[in-house]
Design goal:
Chains A, B: Pfam families: ADH_N, ADH_zinc_N_2. The structure is a homodimer. By secondary structure, chain A is an alpha/beta fold. The first copy, chain A, folds into 2 domains: 186 residues, Quinone Oxidoreductase, Chain A, domain 1, CATH 3.90.180; 134 residues, Rossmann fold (3-Layer(aba) Sandwich), CATH 3.40.50.720. In chain A, 30% of the residues lie in helices and 24% in strands. In chain A, strand 8, helix 4 and strand 9 form a beta-alpha-beta unit. In chain A, helix 3 crosses helix 10. Chain A starts with a strand and ends in a 14-residue tail after the last strand. Chains A and B meet through helix 8 and strand 13 of A and helix 8 and strand 13 of B. Strand 13 of chain A pairs antiparallel with strand 13 of chain B, so a sheet runs across the interface.
Chain lengths: 342, 342
């Protein structure tokens, strides 16, 4: 089957198509006919050599996958050939990537695809949704009626963060960089979308929270937004960031506020081969919320095929995309529902 | 009644004795005949003007108190005149301090003194014990069988941290700076006391945890120990520090480990006048653990009276003390039990 590989992690080597031999699943694995994948910042970092967690040669990247099960390992329970699944299941250390027509992965990393989504919609979700879930559900434990601030509410992780916090009963404010993104954030359920280029943290803390600050701040962007998160959180509050690497914020504000900082890296189960079923469990619960209408993916309008993965990476790097960038790989990427087996 | 005051928060003004008029307790307050107080680093910082949280003139410092209730406000429940109490109840913004023969404080901040302790022993505990409690019980939520590393296990907060983590079923390792302090840490229940001057973090992580790191790291010292905490914690682990102000650690290790950093400031209820009953509840449960023998105070051998509070501050600043420095204020500071009213 066709797949895309890199000859090196140097940011220069292009993605090249090659004929990848079909591997059969091991006892705890499934083989998937890949219908769609999507692009995440970590894929770019791996390609550039900035995140030393890439898979070995032939270096097939791609974490997110949605597709149809082609074969099931002998110890796997709960999945059958022909069923549609989605997951963040490969593309890092020792694991087959999804920029490929066929991939083999650990069955515990995937879950049944929500029937109401096409594969291209489902492939947009796993990495960003698991990240937001770990941040807001497992770490911050957002409570009903709390005020939650999401930095980057129209972004990949952010757009799920806004919807998830809202679905948990929180009052969600978000920072964005344009009117267009503000409109998207409101559509996703934000009560307030703040243009951070036009308003200082102190101003919106005063105006929106009476100077008290937010119970939870979820930083999906990093850099100056992490420092701003320390300002924006209230006394006894919680901050979760997905972008701690390279940052060295002054912890003084955390100290004076008796506050907490969580740094989430959702790749941990794949990198350390531990708690793999965590991903499958989160995606199963996420699927229920998708079916009930509380969460939907935000997907950029541009379309990319398997051989366009390099262009898709460039597009993500440009910062011009709105929502997730999906790679259509199979012929059924657009089909919904797919396939109605169960 | 006699009390000690400062004319300024400049680090130079001496403590001066003065005759402080007796105040009667407000509806939610109690008046306490102070038998003993103790010295904490925050008192030094307030005196130096480094922590802008000192009480207004006449600037009577002293957070920790143990003594006998002299009068009870009309709305106070659960306390009677003559009962012995202990607490971290004043010496900051808007609150009367304990370097005084009599103080008035909010009744929710204190609890009944453990009968098995004298007032001088009880006065050593509140600030450090509430800090350790918030760090290990409320924040880290230490679980039985977890490996906990306490930086500074023979120090004020650290010696309670070692005992509390041990009482929660954890395996407790601690870093100390001398053989003498190592012996103390073993006596307090540490399974391993590591001299951080003789061993690198990587070495003790390898030797003591097989390279895995600690489930929980409790940093009671700050500075380089905070950076070391980020190294010493395991994947998915939790760090709690009491000394975040002024630190700007690189968060990269937190990110790669999907880890958490909590910064604890136990003064919050007193500074913001919120959740005051948190302190009373913690001290009530602490008292039960003291009576059952799981926790005991570590008190330096040198004795100081009320007029020696300046010398006590100097002694704390010297770093030569072993355990808490107590100020004996009343005639019954040494009595045990005191008084057996209930």
């Amino acid at each position: 089957m066709k797949a895309m590989k890199l000859d090196a992690y140097d940011g220069k080597a292009p993605f090249e198509a090659f004929d990848k031999p079909d591997a059969e699943p091991g006892p705890n694995e499934v083989a998937i006919i890949v219908e769609a994948s999507s692009v995440n910042p970590v894929d770019l970092k791996i390609r550039q050599g900035a995140a030393p967690v890439g898979p070995d040669a032939p270096r097939v990247l791609g974490c997110d996958v949605a597709g149809e099960i082609a074969a099931v390992g002998e110890a796997v329970k709960g999945f059958r050939k022909g069923e549609a699944v989605y997951g963040c299941a490969g593309g890092v250390k020792g694991r087959d990537g999804a920029y490929s027509q066929r991939m083999v992965c650990d069955a515990r990393l995937v879950a049944h695809k929500p029937e109401s989504l096409s594969c291209r919609e489902a492939a947009a979700l796993p990495l960003v949704a698991i990240t937001a879930w770990e941040a807001l559900v497992d770490r911050a434990k957002v409570q009903p009626g709390e005020r939650v601030l999401v930095h980057g509410g129209a972004g990949g992780v952010g757009h799920i963060g806004v919807q998830l916090a809202r679905a948990m009963g929180a009052i969600v404010h978000t920072t964005v960089s344009s009117k267009e993104k503000a409109a998207i954030a409101y559509d996703l359920g934000a009560e307030r979308a703040i243009n951070y280029r036009e308003k200082s943290v102190n101003d919106y803390i005063d105006e929106e929270t009476g100077g008290e600050g937010y119970d939870v701040v979820f930083d999906t962007i990093g850099g100056p937004h992490l420092e701003k998160s320390l300002q924006a959180v209230k006394v006894n509050g919680r901050i979760v960031t997905t972008v701690g690497g390279g940052a060295s914020p002054d912890l003084g504000p955390l100290h004076m506020k008796n506050a907490r900082l969580d740094v989430v890296l959702m790749l941990i189960p794949m990198l350390y081969d531990q708690d793999l079923d965590l991903h499958g469990r989160i995606l199963t619960r996420l699927a229920r919320m998708i079916e009930s209408g509380s969460i939907k993916p935000l997907i950029d309008e541009r379309r990319f095929g398997l051989e366009d993965v390099g262009a898709a990476h460039e597009y993500l790097d440009s910062g011009d995309a709105i929502g997730k960038i999906v790679i259509d790989i199979g012929e059924n990427a657009d089909a919904r529902p797919f396939p109605p087996l169960r």
